[in-house]
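protien #1 (seq + structre)
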Amino acid sequence: MKQLVLTLAGIFFSQAVVLCAQGASHSEPTEYIEPATVPSALSLHVGQSLVLRVYASGYQVYQCGTAEGSPTWILSGPDANLFDGKRNLVGSHFATSGSPTWRLNDGSEITAKKVAAAPSPDGSAVPWLMLTVSAHSGKSGLLNEVTTVQRVNTSGGLAPASGCDANHQGRITKSPYSAEYYFSK
């Protein structure tokens, strides 16, 4: 009997998770999220609260172009999957018209712009960022009330040190990266 109750409880919990993932209107996280430990320039404002934390794994995409008259790798944007703490796929991260965008499986979507950066403690990784949401789109979901995004605990993602010259203009390269993203309101 005890095993039956535990099995039924597990089924109920699984169904609740599926309902949330399918777009049930639930704007609060179901578990406590420890705030990111960040440099002061990337800290949340007083009164802001965390909505969601995800883990990104994918690429920073660069295109060989010209800046200030010299060939250089120019960031096109991210191409990454987003995962929850149990490594379930919960969304994607990409660029829309050059701006970073996050879309969750619940259909909610935000686009943001960088307002602050700090070097990653891992010198071979892209910087940590503070971004302000500039647009909400998609369906009603977890990202609807988000106003701030923090990118922390980055690994990899830097542009190659070579390979972009006058003979390789337009060439695209992908640099593997991972990061944690904290979404706050």
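ok now protien #2
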Amino acid sequence: MKNKFMSFLNFFTCTKKVEPEVMRAYLDKLPGNIKVNWKRESDGYIVGDIATEDYTFSTQGKNGDDFIEMVNDAVFTMYDVKRDHIDLLKKFYYIKPRSAEEMEKLKAKKIHSSMFEYAIAT
């Protein structure tokens, strides 16, 4: 984790004027464990419930990739991450299924529901 954080610091100090303490504070406050239960509606949209250590909330997406983006957006919103810091944080903190199999379930229209968990290694 320390090497990943150091590469994170090197990256953002070269690209944006953001204090390292600000980015570290975001990383420390974002959840380490996330559980996502989802189902596919008859119109093809994927609707999911997201559970973190602190919150439970819902989001939706028009397909698997869009749903993953919406899950990330919902987490950043619930944890009060400023919009201008999200793109940078996504390089180091991006929620998606751990396995290719789980991602394929999201993309396969014949699969109607499943769940995945995401954990940050510390």
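The first helix runs from residue 2 to 15.
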